[in-house]
Write a structure and sequence with these properties.
Residues 99-132 are annotated as: Disordered. InterPro entries: Integrase_cat-core, RNaseH-like_sf, RNaseH_sf, Transposase_IS3/IS150/IS904. This is DDE-type integrase/transposase/recombinase. With 132 residues, the chain is of the alpha/beta class. The protein has a single domain (14-118), classed as Ribonuclease H-like superfamily/Ribonuclease H (Nucleotidyltransferase, domain 5, 2-Layer Sandwich). Helix content is 27%, strand content 30%. Strands 1, 2, 3, 4, 5, 6 and 7 form a 7-stranded mixed beta sheet that branches. A hairpin with a 4-residue loop joins strand 3 and strand 4. Helix 1 (53-65) runs parallel beside helix 3 (86-95). It is globular.
């Protein structure tokens, strides 16, 4: 568990991910980024029309593909449906990554995820918490 320590002393040790909703004009888009806590860089992301399992898996797969043979990050998320799904757990396990989830209803456990989404804000799009 990250235990609210949203840092890393080397690349590919601790990642965070979340889903957020953006309104662009009348449309809603959903962003699912994966960020490395070492340097706060977005490793991979996906954008879609719904906060679905396909969206989260499609951001996780290219992130995992960046790992070398010794890469085995802890991947932090909230307890949203996509992160509880068997396919998400299988992708992590197959890559040797560890799942870390916030406690239900505890916003302090999600601080790293919230920082990730704040970093993605732009003046033309306004993120809305989707609670995916």
């Amino acid at each position: 568990m990250l235990d609210r320590d949203f840092t890393a002393d080397a690349p590919n040790r601790n990642w965070v991910t979340d889903v957020t909703e953006f309104r662009v004009g009348e449309a809603k888009l959903y962003l699912s980024p994966v960020m490395d806590l070492f340097d706060r860089q977005i490793i991979a992301h996906s954008i879609g029309a719904s906060p679905s399992l396909a969206l989260t898996n499609s951001s996780l797969l290219p992130a995992l593909a960046t790992l070398g043979a010794d890469g085995a990050p802890m991947v932090r998320s909230d307890q949203g449906f996509p992160y509880l799904h068997a396919s998400w757990r299988r992708l992590l396990a197959d890559a040797g990554a560890t799942r870390s989830m916030s406690r239900k209803g505890n916003c302090y456990d999600n601080r790293g995820n919230r920082e990730l989404l704040r970093a993605s804000q732009t003046p033309t799009a306004s993120p809305q918490d989707s609670r995916a």
